[in-house]
Amino acid sequence: MYRKATNQPLSLVTTLLILSRLAEVGCEILEVKVTNPGDSTFEEAKEKIGRADVIIVSGGNTLFAADRWKKLGVDVLLREAAERGAVIGGGEAERGAKDG
Predict the structure, then answer these.
(1) How far apart are CA 97 and CA 26, in angstroms?
(2) Which domain holds residue 77?
(3) Bridge-partner residues for 90, per DSSP?
(4) 17 inside domain
(5) Residue 95 reports pLDDT greater than 60
(6) Helix 62-72 and helix 74-83, axial crossing angle in degrees, nearest 10
């Protein structure tokens, strides 16, 4: 998720506040965890990402996330979601995380 005027990434706190507000107005919030092996199965991720109209990716190490998504097949699910019109955004990555 980005601030429209500055194109700066939103902080994790701001992202969580937005998610909280979305839940208050009746949006269903589904969580797919992929950080650790066994967090979510591919089938769980496929079902939840397949239903999502909006996908918010939390901050963290970008290279680690991309590697995990590829290993779990989530990269394909996210691409398919984008192709069907889902909106995908995210919060600010960790400060000081080495991505390259």
Answers:
(1) 35
(2) 12-90
(3) 57
(4) yes
(5) no
(6) 90
Tell me if 53 is assigned to some domain. Answer: yes
Q: Give the count of alpha carbons within 13 A of 23, CB side only.
A: 9
User: Does residue 65 lie within any of the structural domains?
Assistant: yes
Q: Choose among 18, 21, 23: nearest CA to 1.
A: 18
> Does 99 reside within a domain?
no
CATH number at residue 54: 3.40.50.880
pLDDT for the residue numbered 85: 95
CA 47 to chain centre: 15
Please tell me the total count of domains within the chain.
Answer: 1
d(CA 99, CA 81): 25
Query: Model confidence over 39-80: pLDDT tens digits?
Result: 888 899 999 999 999 888 876 777 888 888 898 899 999 999
Q: What average pLDDT does range 32-44 have in this prediction?
A: 84
Tokens of 99: 């991505």
- CB count within 10 Å of CB 25 equals 6
